[in-house]
Amino acid sequence: HLERMTDSTGVFQHASFCVPNFSEGYCTDDVARAFILTVQLGELGEEPEGIRRMGTTCAAFLHHAYDSSAGRFHNHMSFDRQWLDSEGSEDCHGRALWALGFGVGRSQHRGFQMMAGQLFARALPALQDFSSPRAWAFGLIGIHEYLRRLSGDSAVSQTREMLRAKLMGLFERHSRPDWCW
Length: 181
Description:
The protein is mainly alpha-helical. Helix content is 59%, strand content 7%. It is built from 6 helices and 6 strands. A hairpin with a 4-residue loop joins strand 4 and strand 5. Helix 1 (28-43) runs antiparallel to helix 2 (49-65), helix 3 packs parallel to helix 5 (133-149) and helix 5 (133-149) runs antiparallel to helix 6. The mean pLDDT is 94.
């Protein structure tokens, strides 16, 4: 049913049941999730031509969403293919890194691995200046997946350690013995 929620640009952001709502356009957050799904389906051997085509569409959207001059991803695109934001949220950026790391670490397709790796390397530095713990966590998941295949990348490993320290610092400052986590 995911194919009903996509076109040649990407995944529609919203729908009424199974009918896409064109007025809501697309968002990088959802396309990142869809890319992860296509890679997982490929791992499971469930990759008919439609799934591969969707993976390619999602990869192209992520590539287009990255604004190299800002070092950030856009998130919201209108149905007429215009970006509606100057830059996406920190969480959007983290989810895009998660998807790209997934493409590097798990995709069976060399083209996805290469594109995702190049874009991951360009987009990762922005994560270091973010304040969103969710963005850090999404980025860490992407880093973990990236390092599955490229474990010798010391710059990515250093970023992983810095983000881990930030999250653990928050945990240590805010956790309490009676915290029902």
